[in-house]
Amino acid sequence: MPNKKHETGGVPERLRQITVETLPVEVPYIPDVDPYTELPEVIYIDKTQADGMGRLAVDGRQPVKLLDMDKLPAKGTVILMNVWVQADEGGLRQGIVADCRRYDGTFDVVDGLKEIDFTDQEEAWDTLEMQQHQVVISAVVDNDSKGETRVWGDPAFYDAALHMAKLVNKESKKHATAEADTKKQNKKSHKKSKKSKG
């Protein structure tokens, strides 16, 4: 007799570590880095991409966690989202969009086609693995010098990047509203406690 409580084979999804390579579609995530790791160790600029103009890139094995506006890292972060867009030739294209508006730092420029030095076997294998798992960011959302939101990168991902920016803005607004409500509640309860003491 089949067990009605048996859902599916394998393990529950919540137990799986999500990485850049396995990002769900249209859900904002941030790199899950420990306090001793700097963001430029995880994300970098590959100068060989986009005909030498460079593109942001990240190791696809990098763990990520759901965006939580209450728990953003003090040093800022980059928000990543997996998107699918309609390609000019008719099919669908998948890519990662990065919202960098909450990151004040810069990223190192790396030569993605640099020759590998096999005299140091350990470093050579690390480089080979990094190249094998490299995920190039399709589009970047950031603020220009006037503070206005702009999109850089593959034009095919322009609309998807703007859609992501709106999603993040919505989350940010919800967070700000909740924070303001909490402050109001705290002020009210503080006044009440003062009156009861008086």
From TrEMBL:
Where is the segment annotated Disordered? Answer: 171-198
Bias regions of kind Basic residues — which residues? 185-198
**Sequence ranges of Basic and acidic residues compositional bias:** 171-184
Q: What is this protein called?
A: Uncharacterized protein
State the organism of origin: Candidatus Nanosynbacter featherlites
